[in-house]
Design brief:
Layout: H1 9-13, H2 18-76, H3 79-100, H4 109-134, H5 142-196, H6 202-228, H7 243-270, H8 280-297, E1 301-308, H9 311-318, H10 320-337, E2 343-348, E3 351-357, H11 361-377, E4 380-381, E5 387-388, E6 392-398, H12 406-422, E7 428-430
Parallel strand pairs: 6-7
Antiparallel strand pairs: 1-3, 1-6, 2-3, 4-5
Helix pairs in contact: 2-3, 2-5, 2-6, 2-7, 3-4, 4-5, 5-6, 6-7, 9-10, 10-11
Length: 434
Amino acid sequence: MASIKTCGLRAQVLIYFTVQCLTLALVSVIAFAALEFTVNTLNEASEEITEELQPVHQLQFKLAAVDQAILGYLINGDPRSRDAFIRLGADIEHTLEALAAPTSPLAHVEEREVISQVSTAWQTVRSTITPTLERTAPQFDPSALREAKQMLALTNQAIRDLEGIYDVAFDEIRSEQQRALTAKRNSLVLASAVLGMALLAMLAAGLSVSHHVLRPISRLVTATGYLGQGDLLVRVPVDRTDEIGQLAASFNTMADKLEEHQAALETMATHDGLTGLYNHAEFMRRLEAEVQRATRYRRPLSLLLFDVDHFKRVNDVHGHVAGDQVLRAIAATLQQQIRPSDVAARYGGEEFGVILPETDGPAAIPIAERIREAIARQAIMTAAGEAVRVTISVGAADYQFNDGPLSTFVEAADRALYAAKKCGRNRVVREETT
């Protein structure tokens, strides 16, 4: 029996009598067919569902991009941000129509209800933000800010609602898994009946096969159950090169792909695609969490907002590709200059934000100056071989526990940023507090 560990399944059955060999071969084929069906079904279901979810991924990304476009218009009054909102709106409506069409891959009632809810929310967003888009200079307009807040709340809720489609998708995977497991169980029942008709001498061989075949099968079934429940970290050991080892490797490959897809979704939802920094929505979520922590434990907290001075001139002179290179270079420099506990994000357009936990107002100034000087010293080489130098204006504010809502904290930093630009740019201005 020791040879079972070192030779393949076909070589093993040659050890036994002809009848025993035929019996074992039949059992093995049934078991392997059941396992292969299980893995193939899960693979096919995963690939099909991933393809179905692609428009949903894009819709979430476009909804997040809408937030950035309208915030860019509120901050800078740049008509291009408004145009970007209009283009994104057309794309969103087209995607929603496609997902709601009879030919849509989203066939479940729950999925269509989610799309209907998101469509309703989007129409509300369009009607809510229309007055802001009609303003030629929306900066610092309180009513425009209120409209933007309503829009952000609606789009963020729509993004969260779309997560429900993922739940339906995982339910489909679990359903496919159950069907495959049922087929496997039926196959094993048939295999047991065949084994029951074998000679008594088959008992020793059956025990050996049970130990070296059914145990890894059980591991695969258990791992499949965990995967169906959403545990994307589950893996099975690949310690053999036969068919079971190949099935285990296939299972691990499928799990790796699912984990990669999940990680890509999480990154897409929280990070800016150009700079790799956190996006505006994730930045505000983390800022709110830091404000709550600072309030609970009475700890200092500061906020920096800065934008690139005369960034429009960079785009006009060197082109938008070079402008994107400048923003990426600034993001990289920013990451080098802040502390591991700090949080940096692309706030919108050419504006960036930095959360400074455990940092009061006076202590935030040297950090802001270090960032400003590092960016001012940097010569950014464009793809055309041109060296571009830019400066930034920085507004700093420290959190006051009696300031009221989070928006007051952000507005203080924004006022300081405006003051820095008004005083000549390329400087740091702190909002004085009493």
